[in-house]
Design brief:
The complex is a heterodimer of chains A (about 300) and B (about 350). Chain A has about 300 residues and is an all-alpha fold. Chain A has a single domain (about 60-295), classed as MetI-like fold (Orthogonal Bundle), CATH 1.10.3720.10. Chain A contains 13 helices and no strands. With about 350 residues, chain B is α+β, with helices and mostly antiparallel strands. Chain B has 2 domains: about 5-235, P-loop containing nucleotide triphosphate hydrolases (Rossmann fold); about 240-350, Nucleic acid-binding proteins (OB fold (Dihydrolipoamide Acetyltransferase, E2P), Beta Barrel). Helix content of chain B is about 25%, strand content about 35%. Chain B has a 6-stranded mixed sheet, sandwiched between helices. In chain B, strands 13-12-11-14-20 form a 5-stranded antiparallel sheet. Chain B has a 5-stranded antiparallel sheet with strand order 15-19-16-17-18, with no helix packed on it. In chain B, strand 11 (about 240-245) and strand 12 (about 250-255) form a beta hairpin. Chain B starts with a strand and ends in an 8-residue tail after the last strand. The model of chain B has no long low-confidence stretch (mean pLDDT about 90). Classes of the chains: A mainly alpha (about 300), B alpha+beta (about 350). Chains A and B meet through helix 8 and helix 9 of A and strand 6 and helix 2 of B.
Chain lengths: ~300, ~350
């Protein structure tokens, strides 16, 4: 009689049954549409949605290649993504450090709720409010500036401020998520190293740079890759607040693809989506590769 | 190099519970002082207050002639070796040791020289390019010590530096730290819960218990003249035998009257029936022929523990036990009845309530 032995592990097959429903959902609603979209990108728009779609090879991609609007949209998307990823990481890291610092005392709960509440607020509701805040004639921001006798803020109406304005709205909405990741990582940082650095004579900045930051690499990796993916796909904020304007300044790739799709140019739209998809895959892989390698001892 | 002075230093987190209570002592320049005591006695807290990693609730700490209460850790010119080493895992051994010097903008040539010297001293020269993850526990400990000595600080603090090492390595490193101290001559404050480490390393030992300083003295005096029951029980392995006894005009009785020590010529200046605790070191309990002026008694052997060089014999005397450190060539077995003796000058008497020496 077996005594003191743990019960035998259930056969591996059982786990497949647990995974199966979710795997099926992912395959049906995630992978399959992607396959279809890629397939559509090689067909003529006019017949794209018909059972016997006409194959056109790389023709849709050739159209994109020579489309100046697409080139601009791509450039804009990359610029915006770069700026937004950087701002998000910096803002989230600073906020996480604030949450950890001793001098916010009992305000900690308030600061935690304040940063995470927007994350669980529906995107569209948040962006509608931001659109109203930025409104030129009756928005809160300009009303306040006006009352103080300061020059008005262009917000989403001016080509020079719209990228910044959209980014602030997106930051407000998403930064809490990144803060949580950083905060969790900060909680795991080795206190001993921090004390050793104090004894070694490090000031606050030196401590952050030489001791904390190297320990935050896991969170930096997760956050920057995730932010990269999210900002390359930027869509909702544009659809709700600017419709790609003013003067195309927020016409990012995914919004442009959506517009083309709306116009029935399915082939080009899906070709564009495929390009974006490949780009996201490539950049994420690069970021992972670069950061994972730099973490090795 | 500097002396360290503690004047009525206390640490409390809520104003009522004291982690450290009114500790006063001074560590003279160049000495190696050990803070020893059981877990939670406040020894590490005290060290961290000296380091500047904990605030001082009451009292003053001075390093050299300067009161450092309000000085942040980085301005105290102290180096510390931590129990878990606290090396920077992403920096090489070289950079771990150089970090403090780099922060002080020491010239590169000077950094290389000092790190090189320390590495030679600690025999870690070949490891300078490695990362801490590629080192053994003992090597990491050396790097941590190296990081402290390259700074040439006024005072070194060691917080249980050997407790993560295995027994053999611990003994080796202990000797090495002692040699290092003799060579550098810098003031060292060393915290440990291991009384053997304390005895072997210290020029002075501070015994702490429940946040209070029990005794601060040289190892020899601490061992020979413990100031109270706690110190008597903590220092020495096996610890001093402590026996509940009653002093009567004619004798000292213990074992609930089952046994009686009759001191020859011990007159009794005390009133009748004074309870006290008698202490005697195991090496002072003699088995065999007793000297003329010794106190003698009968006991049963309860346990025999041969250690090789010597044998520990636990004697049952009435309801109390007495450990005797006997020669290893003595042959006794459990259940034997034998005569033992103690010389009166080896007896320590303590108050049973306060534990203070009589």
């Amino acid at each position: 009689m077996p005594t003191g032995r743990r019960p035998a592990a259930p056969p591996v097959g059982v786990f497949w049954w647990f995974v199966a429903p979710f795997a099926l959902l992912t395959l049906v609603f995630g992978v399959w549409p992607i396959v279809l979209a890629v397939q559509t990108s090689f067909t003529a728009s006019a017949t794209a949605l018909q059972p016997n779609a006409k194959w056109v090879g790389w023709a849709n991609y050739a159209v994109l290649w020579s489309d100046p609007i697409f080139a601009n949209a791509l450039q804009r998307t990359l610029l915006y993504t770069g700026l937004a990823v950087f701002s998000t990481i910096v803002a989230a890291l600073l906020y996480a450090l604030l949450l950890q610092s001793v001098w916010i005392g009992r305000g900690r709960l308030f600061f935690k709720v304040a940063v995470f509440l927007p994350v669980v607020t529906p995107d569209i509701a948040g962006y509608v409010v931001w659109r109203w805040l930025y409104d030129q004639s009756f928005g809160a921001i300009n009303t306040a500036l006006d009352a103080l006798g300061l020059p008005l803020f262009g917000g989403i109406a001016s080509t020079s401020t719209v990228l910044g304005a959209v980014m602030v709205a997106e930051l407000w909405h998403h930064v809490g998520f990144y803060v949580v990741i950083f905060w969790a990582n900060l909680a795991l940082c080795d206190k001993g190293q921090s004390e050793a650095a104090q004894m070694d004579g490090a000031n606050a900045w030196q401590h952050f740079w030489h001791v904390l930051l190297p320990q935050l690499r896991p969170a930096l990796l997760v956050n920057s890759v995730y932010a990269l993916i999210q900002y390359l796909k930027t869509f909702t904020v544009v659809a709700v607040m600017t419709k790609g304007g003013p003067n195309e300044t927020t016409n990012f790739v995914s919004y442009y693809a959506y517009q083309l799709f709306d116009q029935g140019r399915y082939g080009e739209a899906t070709a564009m989506a495929t390009v974006l998809f490949a780009l996201i895959l490539l950049l994420s892989a690069l970021a992972m590769h670069f950061q994972v390698r730099s973490r090795l001892p | 190099m500097a002396a360290v002075d503690l004047r009525a230093v206390s640490k409390t987190y809520d104003g009522r519970q004291f982690a450290v209570r009114a500790v006063s002592l001074s560590v003279p320049d160049g000495e190696l002082a050990v803070f020893v005591g059981p877990s939670g006695c406040g020894k590490s807290t005290l060290l961290r207050m000296i380091a500047g990693l904990e605030t001082i609730s009451q009292g003053d700490i001075a390093i050299g002639d300067m009161r450092v209460n309000d000085l942040p850790a980085r301005e105290r010119d102290i180096a510390m070796v931590f129990q878990d080493y606290a090396l920077y895992p992403h920096k090489s051994v070289m950079e771990n040791m150089a970090f403090g010097l780099r922060l002080r903008r020491t010239p590169e040539a000077e950094i290389r020289r000092r790190v090189g010297d320390a590495a030679d001293l600690l025999q870690i020269g070949p490891l300078l390019d490695r990362k801490p993850a590629a080192l053994s526990g003992g090597q990491r400990q050396r790097v941590a010590i190296g990081r402290a000595i390259v700074r040439q600080p006024k005072v070194f603090l060691f917080d249980e530096p050997l407790s993560n090492l295995d027994a053999q390595l611990r003994t080796d490193m202990r000797a090495e730290i002692k040699r290092l101290h003799q060579r550098l001559g810098t003031t060292i404050i060393y915290v440990t819960h291991d009384q053997v480490e304390a005895m072997t390393l210290a020029s002075r030992i501070a015994v702490l218990h429940a946040g209070q300083l029990q005794q601060y003295d040289t190892p020899a005096r601490l061992y020979r003249q413990p100031g109270n029951l706690f110190v008597a029980g903590f220092m020495g392995s096996p610890p001093m035998n402590r026996l509940a006894a009653t002093l009567t005009p004619q004798s000292v009785e213990w074992g609930g009257g089952a046994f009686c020590l009759r001191p020859a010529g011990w007159t009794a200046p005390w009133p009748e029936q004074v309870p006290l605790v008698l202490g005697v070191r195991p090496e002072h309990v003699m088995v065999g022929p007793a000297p003329a002026d010794a106190l003698t008694g009968q006991a049963t052997v309860a346990l025999v523990e041969p250690l090789g060089a010597e044998t520990l014999v636990t004697l049952q005397v009435g309801r109390q036990t007495l450990v005797c450190r006997a020669s290893s060539d003595m042959t006794v077995t459990t259940g034997d009845t034998l005569t033992f003796s103690v010389h009166p000058r080896h007896l320590h008497a303590f108050h049973p309530d306060s534990g203070a020496i009589w």
